[in-house]
Amino acid sequence: MFSVTLFHHGIFILVPSVISTSTHLLTYRQKLRGVMDLFSPYTSHAQTALCAPVKDKYSLLMEDDKVRVGASSMQGWRNSMEDAHTIHLSLPNLPFHMAPEDGAMAAVFDGHSGCKTAQFAASHMLKWITSSDLFASGNIEAAIRSAFVRGDAVIHRSMPYEQSGCTGNCILLVQNHLYCSNVGDSRAVMCRGGVPFPLSEDHKPTLPKERERIKKAGCFVQNGRVNGVLSLSRALGDFSFKDQGLKPEEQAISPVPDVVHVTLTPQDEFVIIACDGVWEKLSNKKVINFVRDEIGEHGDLSLACERLMDFCLAPVAGSPGSDNMTVVIVQFKSIFLRKLESEFVCTHV
């Protein structure tokens, strides 16, 4: 099984036994809810901006019989890199005697207030999903939801005083079934027949269902942020916003993901997963068109990721495109889709 987990400018083959960390120029510890910390990346872009953006990119290209995957990350204007992502071209413990090569996974974790939660999630999400009885029995959606919730608890036990948090957008491929799980505002969009097919919804505090849960948990929404601080309403970590007396689905910042399940068709071209730094600059349609043009021009998925980030990078700090950026493109091979379609027809004759 070949896998890559990338964070802090390093590529780790398989799952590293030791997670690298670094000293941060800025730390964020919210002692009191609702108190604005000027050094939080969610409350003040200007305080965390460099004099010039770091445009160095860390890219990779992977391929097997079913998919081609390109990925790239860039620090940008922020003074540290807090994103992480992971890619696996096979999955262990697949149900119904499937081969490991029948599955794949790609995920992006956009960290805030530090990188540790994002790194931890990227290193362990595969195990959290595939090691459960739910997964082995074929209840994939329930296995994914359970993995996010259990993973959040593991993070808290492992790092009880850690104040960072992260989004999580995970794509799981099991034969011709695609599952997208999401907490936060990283986004996944599929290109189906040349048009965008959204796989996730950004979790924002201003959404009625999110706002209602936040208020019931004893928090408030101010200026589109939970307690005036966090601009997203679901995440892993962020334990200063979580009440250990509440259930995961009741938390102001909930770790429970939405899970979308779609059956792939021959019209499905690729899925792009990216941090909010991309989506705050471009619409779903513009991102899909950009990637399609790149694939048509040169076919290099990692280069397509790099060019997309360059295009979205803010000209000045503090404007849209100032955040860390990570982009993953999963392209379905046409022979793989045709094979799945023929197998589906044969089994239903």
From TrEMBL:
Where is the PPM-type phosphatase domain positioned along the sequence?
68-332
Pfam families per UniProt: PP2C
PROSITE patterns tied to this protein = PPM_2 (PS51746)
Family matches, as SMART domains = PP2Cc
| GO MF annotations in UniProt | protein serine/threonine phosphatase activity
Organism listed in the record: Trypanosoma congolense (strain IL3000)
Q: What is the lineage of its organism?
A: Eukaryota, Discoba, Euglenozoa, Kinetoplastea, Metakinetoplastina
Q: Which residues cross the membrane?
A: none
> InterPro entries annotated for this entry?
PP2C, PPM-type-like_dom_sf, PPM-type_phosphatase-like_dom
User: CDD domains this protein is in?
Assistant: PP2Cc (cd00143)
Q: What is this protein called?
A: PPM-type phosphatase domain-containing protein
